[in-house]
């Protein structure tokens, strides 16, 4: 019989060290059954009247979720100390018993600073941060001296700069040491979240000493505020000051290099990761994969992924996202399938990425992923539902998309925008505007943004709803607080030109309050050609060429070449051709894709690109010979 069983049967007396180890094991397992066994053994050997062991059992019951047992034990503790009350208070907050926790706090015979800290953090975790700040003010009125953890807790949930400044001032007045990492790192992170870059830098400079968390907060703050180059400089300064970066530092730096599309510095960060052995961390490796992908080095992303000894969900998501970002839907799907075969369970980010990568000929595969999302319970997630709708609209399955729309409850603005834009692009203008009207009366108070209004204007443009389009465009700034951009002006001008209102369109273009894009003039140029107004066409084409906007379009060059050749102005025609070649502009070429079984075929201007399958050119040649043979006979 083992020693554990002998002790359990009372054959030898367990010691306090034995129970300490047993209690620690219970904390790790969070087992309700094991907690009850430990409690029973403590009762059996006579340890339980001791307040210390009762408090330990109380912790175990709250940790394992046995709330009723915890309440019974708490009521039966004859000599409750402040620790007993604090354990119960914290346990109630952790398990969602907010009202019980408030009543318990009022009943406490004595409260120490831990009680107040527990109350502040508990209210914030339950979604009532403003009440947490009120508790802190009550604490100050009662002259309870806050600890470093009080300020750290407060800094973690503050949502306005004014409250942040007050907490910062309180920390200074309380005499918190300038070398206290816990408080000042929390204050730095608080200011970073609030978007006050200058305050973050000020706190950093006043610290007597800094650790790696301080530097990480500074680097992330610089990045969030748009000073990404300055953020990379801080890594060099950090190393010069004798602080070594950790995995979080280099993953942040790699993300910054991705945003900057800076391959050179990204490679330097990769070299540092290799030197410090950080590639064992999946987050760092995933950031490296993303960096190479964003810098148009997808091959290197695949090479990094190939170094994996064991498939990892985070890294699979990174590679699937990389293939999706570059438009390689088939490759993204292949990685997804291989990951499933390696027993990597997909999460909502995996499904969202793979659905976003689906192209117009992958409807069958998209429907299968949809079924998998339903099976895994991710179909109701807003991000997954948005990707599903986007995939169905992209493949022309409007009814399937609207089915997802009808069954999704947590609709955010991106979701609404996807539906409005998808309906517009699938020539369902009336439905698109109806969804827009639903958004305006939505009870969650979502307000249309630039994308929303762009979708409605596209719907009006495709359907020729001139009155509705003008009304929406006119109400953008006054009603919705959105200043029209190039894309909105281009859309309303195209709507007017399609309706034959070319003069009204030109009037709007002439009065745009900023330098318009050359694309704004394209509808007017097309309409003037259709009406045979060569003088207006020449004027508009020249204005487009004089525009400083990028990228340049080949359309005005081709129009001028055609007009000059029609009027026998050959020198002007040659000059325009030379300018077109100098800018390396080519005529837009049409393209199309078809899917046959497991292969996707792209047709572009006398080219045939094959993604998978057999040698199609040889097959077409055989078909041609067979056709000729039938003609001869």
UniProtKB/TrEMBL annotation:
The PPR repeats extend over: 81-111, 112-146, 211-245, 312-346
| An example Gene Ontology biological process | plant organ development
**InterPro entries in the cross-refs:** PPR_At4g14850-like_plant (IPR046960), PPR_rpt (IPR002885), TPR-like_helical_dom_sf (IPR011990)
Q: Which Gene3D superfamilies match?
A: Tetratricopeptide repeat domain
Entry annotated with the keyword Acyltransferase: no
Q: Which domain of life is it from?
A: Eukaryota
**What keywords sit in the KW lines?**
Repeat
Name of this chain's protein: Pentatricopeptide repeat-containing protein
